[in-house]
Design brief:
The chain is of the alpha+beta class. It is built from six helices and four strands, in the order H-H-E-E-E-E-H-H-H-H. The termini are far apart.
Length: 191
């Protein structure tokens, strides 16, 4: 646990410091590179506007429908990745929209910095833990653990056969040959 704690402390510190040196103000670098690739690829698309929100985008693979209002594209990449695909970028650029506003908020620099803004507090040696546990148990001001109740998992009671013949077995009946002693699935009578 101490190893995980130290690794998390280091990771938060490194990511906090690295984000201060990034040049982009809108998206994190990985999302920015995807967005730039989509913008470059969208230059090869033909865009036809159907109405205020829907577009038909033609590329080398075929026609794709983009709905800007629903933030969806027929290729499915926009919904899966949270960033506009090249079809959506082409549609957004054709109507003069800012493509960066259509990226999910988790890819923004603000969201990233807010995620790693708080630091993970250092933890003292376990000697002090024991003292605090004793204080908590003695004073009763701490977190109480639930009571441990014994007992195994209760299962169903099994009905055991009686040897003296008091228990009557249910007769099974075949629906195909009308005989007793077997089911339709195990019937061997000719059809």
């Amino acid at each position: 646990m101490e190893c995980f704690h130290r690794r998390l402390m280091d990771m938060f510190k490194e990511r906090r410091e690295a984000s201060l040196h990034w040049s982009s103000d809108v998206l994190v670098p990985s999302a920015e590179s995807r967005m730039l690739a989509a913008i470059a690829k969208s230059r090869c698309h033909r865009v036809y506007r159907a109405n205020e929100a829907e577009f038909e985008v033609m590329d080398s693979e075929g026609n794709v429908v983009v709905d800007v209002e629903k933030r969806s594209c027929l290729c499915g990449r926009w919904e899966v990745y949270g960033l506009p695909c090249s079809h959506a970028v082409g549609a957004l650029l054709s109507c003069g929209e800012d493509v960066y506003e259509y990226a999910e908020s988790c890819f923004t620099m603000e969201s990233y910095r807010r995620t790693y803004a708080d630091s993970i507090e250092p933890v003292s040696d376990n000697v002090e833990w024991r003292e605090k546990v004793l204080k908590i148990e003695g004073g009763g001001d701490g977190i109480r653990t639930p009571k441990v109740t014994g007992g195994a998992r209760k299962g169903r009671r099994r009905i055991r056969p009686v040897d003296n013949g008091d228990r009557v077995k249910r007769l099974v009946h075949c629906s195909r040959c009308q005989q007793t002693g077997h089911f339709r699935t195990t019937c061997i009578a000719p059809m």
